[in-house]
Amino acid sequence: MTDKPGVVITGVSGRMGQMLVREVLVHDGLRLAGALERPGHDWVGHDLGEAMGGAALGVRVGDDPLEAFARAQAVIDFTAPAATVAFADLAAQARAVHVIGTTGLSDDDLKRIHIAARHAVIVRAGNMSLGVNLLTKVTEQVARALDADWDIEIVEAHHNRKVDAPSGTALMLGEAAAAGRGVSLAEVSDRGRDGMTGARDKGAIGFHAIRGGDIVGEHEVIFATGGERIVIKHIASDRALFARGALKAALWGQDKAPGEYDMLDVLGLN
Ligand SMILES: NC(=O)C1=CN([C@@H]2O[C@H](COP(=O)(O)OP(=O)(O)OC[C@H]3O[C@@H](n4cnc5c(N)ncnc54)[C@H](O)[C@@H]3O)[C@@H](O)[C@H]2O)C=CC1
Ligand SMILES: O=C(O)C1=N[C@H](C(=O)O)C[C@H](O)C1
């Protein structure tokens, strides 16, 4: 028996799920306590290691979150909005730290997550990398220093399997730019122009999404005015980066009071 906190990984067959499994297996401070997939998925009932194409791990892929979370101190969840909202309630019942990487959450989803955080620690971020979280701080500072004669545009690029746009990261960067400018993102956001749009609205924050091939994740914040342009860019070339950030958050959350946190809290950048 070990006293390392046990982690359940949801969506284990997914791009991030498999990366999280690999990273938790080599982590010094955490152990794999369970693996979940959606009911009806091919992997359910099979050994996780064998399902991943390797040696048996002695961990069976399950489809019952309540049973799995009861045995865990943390749940790491990169799945889909409907699943994540349900997991937030169940992780809170089990008093397990819930690390949420899922993006594309609606305002209603966010409200339900907020309610679950009354009873347990939830760490949620559209991007778990140090580089992107640092970029949000830089974006906020640059936006604060510049007036609305500087147009702000956010361009993101991802692989062709991504289902949501703008990316969670682009929205984090948009929120940071809006905060720096002292405006509400909802009021100035301008998404994916097409057709006779008219001239750009002064003060708008524009979003553009590229989808292609196997791009892991690229984000650019452009500040443009007459005669000059500032471009700040982050390139992720390995999903392990997101997985390691999520594991750090799971460990960090173990001694925290119930509430909603983000990666800036985990990384000490707030
Ligand atoms: N915050 C961050 O740093 C990052 C966030 N993401 C986000 O993570 C999410 C997943 O991304 P990918 O791994 O690329 O997607 P994916 O489609 O490869 O994997 C999602 C997995 O979740 C599973 N799933 C869906 N409903 C489920 C349920 N009810 N119970 C258990 N499993 C369920 C699916 O079967 C699938 O295996 C997306 O929202 C993506 O934007 C991705 C990378 C980094
Ligand atoms: O779906 C992805 O792949 C990614 N999603 C996150 C997002 O929406 O920003 C983070 C990362 O860019 C990869």
Automatic annotation (TrEMBL):
CDD domains, sorted: DHDPR_N
Residues the entry annotates as binding NAD(+): G11, V12, S13, G14, R15, M16, E37, G101, T102, T103, A125, G126, N127, M128
Pathway: Amino-acid biosynthesis; L-lysine biosynthesis via DAP pathway; (S)-tetrahydrodipicolinate from L-aspartate: step 4/4
Enzyme Commission code(s) on record: 1.17.1.8
The UniProt record lists the keyword NAD: yes
Example of a GO cellular component annotation carried by this entry: cytosol
Binding site for (S)-2,3,4,5-tetrahydrodipicolinate: H159, G168, T169
Transmembrane segments: none
Pfam families registered for this protein in UniProt: DapB_C, DapB_N
Dihydrodipicolinate reductase N-terminal domain: residues covered: 7-128
Record's keyword terms, sorted: Amino-acid biosynthesis, Cytoplasm, Diaminopimelate biosynthesis, Lysine biosynthesis, NAD, NADP, Oxidoreductase
Entry's Gene Ontology molecular function annotations: 4-hydroxy-tetrahydrodipicolinate reductase; NAD binding; NADP binding; oxidoreductase activity, acting on CH or CH2 groups, NAD or NADP as acceptor
One BP term from GO: diaminopimelate biosynthetic process
Annotated ranges, domain Dihydrodipicolinate reductase C-terminal: 131-267
Family matches, as InterPro entries: DapB_C, DapB_N, DapB_N_CS, DHDPR_bac, NAD(P)-bd_dom_sf
Keyword NAD: yes
NCBIfam families: dapB (TIGR00036)
Known function: Catalyzes the conversion of 4-hydroxy-tetrahydrodipicolinate (HTPA) to tetrahydrodipicolinate.
Subunit-structure text: Homotetramer.
Protein name per Swiss-Prot or TrEMBL: 4-hydroxy-tetrahydrodipicolinate reductase
Organism annotation: Thetidibacter halocola
